[in-house]
Amino acid sequence: MSRIKRLESLLLSINSKKHFTLKELAVEFKVSTRTIQRDLLSLMEMGLPIISEFGPHGGYRMENDRILPPIGFTEMEASAILFSLQPFEEESFPFQIQSRSVANKLLQYLPEDAKDRWNVVQKRLFVQNPIPKNGSIAPVILEAAIKQKIMTIHYQTEGTKKYSNIQPIGIYSENGEWYCPAYSYSLSDFHIFCVTDILNAVINYEPMEVKDFSAVTIHNWVAQIDPRSFVYLDATIEQDGIAYCQSHAYLKILLKVNEDGTATLNGRILSSQIKKVAEYLWSLKGNILLHSPYEIRQLHQHWSEEISLKYSSVLNM
Length: 317
Known about the structure:
The protein contains eleven helices and 13 strands. This is DNA-binding transcriptional regulator YafY.
């Protein structure tokens, strides 16, 4: 048996034992105790928590935090693990140290081209809970965004089914839905597609002139909106509302935190997304002072009046 094979088998063996001696392992692997001792030292240098105990009943044991045997991952599996670990690297998470350790180990052994692909994935995907249940087309959209390819989609909007060629920026989840900001070649501008509205999607691998979105990501795409298609959002956010904006896939792009503890939301928003942005800002309750656009202020006022009327009718009963 080669030394590498023996080390792998030795790791599996001691990982299943609470206590072991050099003699026991030497008999098991049919080598000398000196050879086993060298192998154990090699495993300890690799970071295995092996503790030696002295005395008449001495020997070796593994610490409580035992090491799993080697597990092979594909590059995409490693990327999936890295992405899954991101929310758990905050200091408040009980296993924050272990989460960072796993991420560092995976990044250490990823080939350079796989690291580059992982960096691209982070530019094209943003996930927040709850995870959407329906998303069979989401992997195809993500692939097109990563490869910067144009895709043809068949989608429904306001009861009408349409075809369109789009170049997706990426996908993000929000309130249990997947959304895809993309450049629509039929609209000659950016648009946000709800992925559940997309009935079919096919990547066009034929040579086509695509736009260079290498610097445009799921985190900054709003800045690319054509001036003819947007209204300007200007709002002051109080300190209690900052955390909500920072955790929001869309609002965080427009957020600027000031030294005095307040913050502002400034930037362009699609005219077609006014109602959606109004819903985002509605969650801030009294922690926002909205300066513009007027359309969102109107919506908020209308919603407030609707709620007031409902409560008034209840109180007058």
